[in-house]
């Protein structure tokens, strides 16, 4: 986000606040709950959205040094192994041994290695994915070509510190993966220089879209977050922009933004005056607060189950030191727990919503005019799903 955009966005909020308004959609939107509970919809999502398009899976700073790796539980039982190879290049492999499919690294585990040795029979792979060792290979597998037994590698690319993959092995990644405005937004957040403080992983009994929706509207702030966020934010006031696809930026202004009108423009600071959300749907949501960024990774496991991974990204230790000071550690730990506390308020609601939807008593949901980002999200979702207007009309 360049300085001009930062100023423009703050002015937009001040103007809306002065009129007592927010960013509207022209009308309300109604959808059947079918899309949150149905196996048929879920299968179509996996095929068309999660497998059929490039997807952001994480950030390069999750594996900052040569040999660093992390295993990510992914859709359809897949496990991804994100590795920084010996040439400082990030690669994404299937976390599956070419002998008999064992997992090389347990879910959620990370670290730094020169080689990955399978826990079953010790076939061993380099960080470039080549099979470099296998006990008694010549005696047992003399008719196989060792060179053809490297790890399965997905096409991947890092753009502005974000790691993109295509899970369809036959597909190349398109030249443009991020709009210029999104790139500039991630530069503004200095994503490439962030460090992982801690991560947390858990499974929720809710559809991934319900969880995403909770992150892109402020209508619920004064109610669901009355004791946590509400005292600091401007209630049901938010603005958002998109530059195509399911990517967007949302501004959730804090009460401190109102002070901007009495400050010279050079004192306006978006990081302090608002929370900024960037979504790279369907899988990633970034929540930027003044001194940290929460990366929220969503992996749908079934229509009613989603794995959530929270990764707290923070600035590297000051003064080129390798370790955070005690004061920094204390602050990061407080923020790590605070994010979880606030998200839990959303997640509890999300699980109850899912249970109600599965009961089938109330058969539709309505998005108000001021929940305009939800309308946008579902319009893009339907496009990505390949629904034509007739199917959509039937589904409503
Ligand atoms: S399954 Fe990996 S070495 Fe046998
Ligand atoms: Fe929320």
From TrEMBL:
Cofactors (names): Fe cation
**Family annotation (SUPFAM superfamilies):** Bet v1-like, ISP domain
The record's listing under InterPro entries reads: Rieske_2Fe-2S, Rieske_2Fe-2S_sf, Ring_hydroxy_dOase_asu_C_dom, Rng_hydr_dOase-A
Q: What domain of life is recorded for the organism?
A: Bacteria
Q: Which PROSITE patterns does the protein's record reference?
A: RIESKE (PS51296)
Q: Where is the Rieske domain?
A: 54-165
Keyword set includes Transit peptide:
no
For this protein, the record's CDD domains field holds: RHO_alpha_C_3 (cd08887), Rieske_RO_Alpha_N (cd03469)
Q: Which UniProt keywords apply?
A: 2Fe-2S, Iron, Iron-sulfur, Metal-binding, Oxidoreductase
GO molecular function terms noted in the UniProt entry? 2 iron, 2 sulfur cluster binding; iron ion binding; oxidoreductase activity
* Ranges annotated as spanning the membrane: none
Q: Does the keyword Cell cycle apply?
A: no
Which PANTHER family does this UniProt record tie to the protein? CHOLINE MONOOXYGENASE, CHLOROPLASTIC (PTHR43756)
Its recorded name reads Rieske (2Fe-2S) protein
